[in-house]
Amino acid sequence: MMYFEDVEVGRRSSFGRYEVTREEVIEFASKYDPQPFHLSDEAAESTYFGRLSASGWHTAAMMMRMLVENLSDIQQAGLGSPGLDELRWLKPVYPGDVLRVESEVIDKTPSRSRPEMGSFRSRATLINQDDVAVMTVLSIGLVRTRPPVS
Amino acid sequence: MMYFEDVEVGRRSSFGRYEVTREEVIEFASKYDPQPFHLSDEAAESTYFGRLSASGWHTAAMMMRMLVENLSDIQQAGLGSPGLDELRWLKPVYPGDVLRVESEVIDKTPSRSRPEMGSFRSRATLINQDDVAVMTVLSIGLVRTRPPVS
Questions:
Q1: Cα of B8 to nearest chain A Cα, Å
Q2: Quick one: closest CA in B to A58, which residue?
Q3: Helix (H, G, I), strand (E, B) or coil at B74
Q4: What sign for the dihedral angle of Cα A108, B83, B37, B101?
Q5: Among A62, B23, B84, B121, which is disulfide-ready with B106 (CB 3.0 to 4.6 Å)?
Q6: Are B18 and B126 in contact, with CB atoms under 8 Å apart?
Q7: Residue A76's pLDDT band (boundaries 50, 70, 90)?
Q8: Phi then psi for A109, rounded to 5 degrees?
């Protein structure tokens, strides 16, 4: 089990593989972001995107899927996340793209009021098959401290 | 059409209605955030959440749906979003909750390099049926300036 004491500032990880499909892009956008350029090539043609591209929220959700798969490998004593900062959509994500994640632990802070936990911040970058960064986010995680040996 | 010049700093809006269902919570989490406490009451019982709750990314996606519906009413000359800051998940979102959005324009900035556009920041808060804020986010929007009269 990985506790707060085990979180290493500066540690980098590289993981995940997500194939973006046209069907999934349209399905997500239909439910949660039905702007025309996320629904068809025709509507996207005259926009910045040029052709059908994924909703930014879909892109974030695909990253989350890879983070969860990676965390379940690590067995972290995680307590969830209060949120995130500096989410930036840098480039469009298109059907056919294959995404992966690179992440780095930026800093960690023990809780002042709750000795049983601490927080850490990670910068995660989503990268496509051409090694282009398409999204970056600074996420905050909460994690248990190591229980005292009794 | 609503252009950059029409964006009013301090303007507040209240809109949307989204009923959270158990089926949708499990469907989203299965695809994008398959942590056990987002998949069943049993797995959530011993956690902070107490019972099945929506993925934070699902919560964000539900907010986006309401924002898009509201924007399509306004006919804004929008150019998409480069990202967001200070997303915070404040309280769990449970099946049966009914969500709405309150938003306020915080500031606006003309582009220094591109006179045909500007950006503005809005603070959006997602509120449940008990008037409890469950999520807040500071989003950045890009919008066209009014075309010169020729």
A1: 23
A2: B61
A3: helix
A4: positive
A5: B121
A6: no
A7: low
A8: -140, 125
Q: d(Cα B16, Cα B68) in Å, to the nearest integer?
A: 10
Task: Classify the C-alpha dihedral A107-A111-A115-A121 as positive or negative.
Answer: negative
User: Residue A60: its chain B contacts at CB < 8 A?
Assistant: 57, 60
Judged on CB neighbours under 10 Å (0-12, 13-18, 19+), B130 is: exposed
User: Could you tell me if A138 lies within 8 Å of chain B, comparing CB atoms?
Assistant: no
Q: Which helix (H) or strand (E) holds B71?
A: helix B56-74
- Are B31 and A87 inside 8 Å of each other by CB? no
Residue identified by tokens 């290493």 is A8
CA-wise closest residue to A117 among A84, A149, A79: A79
Interface contact B68, partner A, CB < 8 A? yes
Across the A:B interface, residue pairs with CB atoms under 8 Å apart total 69
* Contact assessment for residue A143 and residue A120, using Cβ atoms and an 8 Å cutoff: yes
What token pair was written down for A36? 């025309």
The predicted-structure confidence for B101-139, as pLDDT tens digits, reads as follows 999 999 999 999 998 999 999 999 999 999 999 999 999
B89: closest CA of chain A, how far (Å) = 5
Residues from chain B that touch A84, judged by Cβ atoms under 8 A, are 87
Q: Are A137 and A62 in contact (CB under 8 A)?
A: no
Sheet strands side by side (includes A98-110): A12-19, A98-110, A117-127, A133-144, A83-89, B83-89, B133-144, B117-127, B98-110, B12-19
Q: Which site among A23, A27, A30, A32 would you substitute to test the B interface, given the most B Cβ atoms closer than 10 Å to its Cβ?
A: A32
ipTM: 0.92
Task: Report which secondary-structure segment, H or E, holds A99.
Answer: strand A98-110
Tokens standing for residue A133: 């960064």
pLDDT tens for each residue of B55-76: 999 999 999 999 999 877 666 6
